[in-house]
Amino acid sequence: MTTTKHTNPKHEASSRTGPNEAVVPIVEEELHIEKQNVETRRVRLTKTVQEREVLVTQPVMQEDIQIERVPVDRWLSEPASVRYEGDIMIIPVMEEVPVVEKRLRLKEELRVTKRQIITQRNEPMRLRTEEVHVERMPSQPSSVSSDVTIRFVNDPSIPNRVGD
Questions:
Q1: pTM flag (> 0.70)
Q2: Are 80 and 106 in contact (CB under 8 A)?
Q3: Which percentage of the chain shows pLDDT scores above 70?
Q4: Which tens digit of pLDDT belongs to each residue from 14-67?
Q5: pLDDT attached to residue 13
Q6: Of 152, 149, 153, which Cα lies nearest the Cα of 135?
Q7: Residue 35 φ then ψ, to 5°
Q8: Listed residue (38, 36, 37, 40) closest to 138, CA to CA
Q9: Sequential DSSP letters for 118-154
């Protein structure tokens, strides 16, 4: 920190003008502040990862197909195409039968129904936990030290499968 003094030059000039005048000096100080970075302590971080397995239950969907064979035994004049009746897909199965003339006979239809099955399945999951060990170290030798342990736990909503 430094201090500088300034006097007003007008008043110095007026003091030379006459003997009956009194001169009062006016002083002004200015302040300049500087900062320095000083090391007070040091810190050492040590991180370890720990794993644990948890059991997570979640819904699993699968589709099941049921096939029903329906005998039709009907003669056709042209090939039949796949058709739908609601959620049921009907696939015609045709065959050519030798007759005096060749005609199409609808032999059977396959009725395919699709359904969804939702079940609960348990799967083992591996969650990781991180620990950070903080050791404070003074910048100059000192007998004072303190230890702090910080734990960071992963968000369990993010799945970590066992074996990943």
A1: no
A2: yes
A3: 74
A4: 445 567 888 888 888 888 888 888 888 888 888 998 999 999 999 999 988 999
A5: 46
A6: 149
A7: -115, 150
A8: 40
A9: EEEEEEEEEEEEEEEEEEEEESS--S---EEEEEEE-
